[in-house]
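Below is how a single chain appears once it has passed through the pipeline. First comes the sequence as given, then the structure the pipeline wrote out for it. We keep one example in the README because the format questions we get most often are answered faster by looking than by reading.
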Amino acid sequence: MNLFNIIRSKYGQDTVKLVRAQEKIVRKAARTRHHRVFALHCKRLNITPKGLQLKCPINPSNAEKIIKDAENRLVRESIRKSTKSIKVLKRQEKEIEQRLDESFNDVRNNNNNRPKPIGVNPSSHVVRGNTRKHLNNVRESEFARVKARQIKKLKWWRQSKENKYKFTNGNRFKWKIVERKWVVNLSSRPLSSDEQNVLSKGLNYAVSGDRNKSRSIEEIIVSTEMICKLDSIPLDEKDTIRGKVTSILKSSKPPLPNLSRTERNAFEGLKKDKEVMILPADKGRATVVINTEDYIYEQHEGIAMGSPVSHLIANIYLESFEEEAIKSADGTIKRHFWRRYVDDVFAIVHKDAPLPLNRHLDSIDPSGKIKFTTEIMSEKQITFLDMIIRIKQDGTLATKVYRKPTHTDQYLDFHSNHPLEHKLSVVNTLVDRANTIVSEEEDKKQELKHIRKALKICNYPKWSVDRVVSKRKEQNSKTSQKNVKERKWRR
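Resulting structure:
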């Protein structure tokens, strides 16, 4: 016999209505809960659901920023509203459950003047158990249905974002392809889209949501016990250490996975493939995939690459090399300014001296293997390290940031499982470089605009850049006020 027929014959139509009401609330709670999860994913991925997107009848330069800020607020309001609705639905579900418990327990009153079912007479706890099982099935089926639909939406949005699309300033519905030369495949193995996505995150991308959580906890406990075995630590401090570690392990929550299931499978497949090697590019920040048999590296002379003392030894040698070059230069090579950083030299010489100076530097090394290249100022500007030095019309110098053609604008991905301080240090470094190197205000605005675009591609939220920029402005304001006070005091 059907569950509802049993409830109707044994407990009456009112009880059936209660079960139907709870079933309705369970479905709504499952939908609301997954809508909240979907909104949280949208907030994390910095995308706006279609139902919350806004249209602007005008097209000023800052219209897109205003619309995006409003859409972000709508997403946050959607999360808040869903959280509040879940609490209300839980309370309603609990109230109906209490009424159902009272109805099922009051068998004697519910069976008065009511015909009993033929061939079946289940007890109250069996009927209640079957009702709970039915409601759980309803909850799971509704949750699975909504989840499949939301995953389909998120997959489309992620593919759009990972295919390097972004809005243009002219029209928010026109897309522009952003080239990201972050993966160079030189191997014979074709890379799938998931493998491309994983490799484009960078070789320093830390994967979270490890399945071996219990193993990592065991390693922490074993390490703690090894420390506590040291005789130098007092007994009471050992108990304190154990207590603090236990408290941290109990209260800590594992980070959410930052790779999808297909991306994780692609990641594991690349790790197991011994026929290819994944290496960083020699110039620029990119990931190179190459056949293992094609990768051959032999160093025949020089100091070891990667050694912590190699940089120091190279600098000492170049310092002696520089002294010998300056001392042995003849009078025809006139230099008015000379500054060196490792193997890069910025020099101001006579217009006829660059080629003789280059030949002289190439002749210093007895082996003849150290050769120099010369870059001469063109159109009143020249590059040195990460700077472009330009001569202005009034004769003064202006500087701004220089990026080599091999530069890819790839930085630590914000979704990587790194501490937040490490990610914000990327923003600090870029903003500080802009404030230090760039001398003109207009160039500084363009540099900050470039930083925002590059970090947006690396999934950095808008607040991360705004916080650093406002903090630096506040520090500069305090410094200028302090300098003004010092000048007044000296007077």
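DSSP finds 14 helices and ten strands in the chain.

See the next section for the split statistics.
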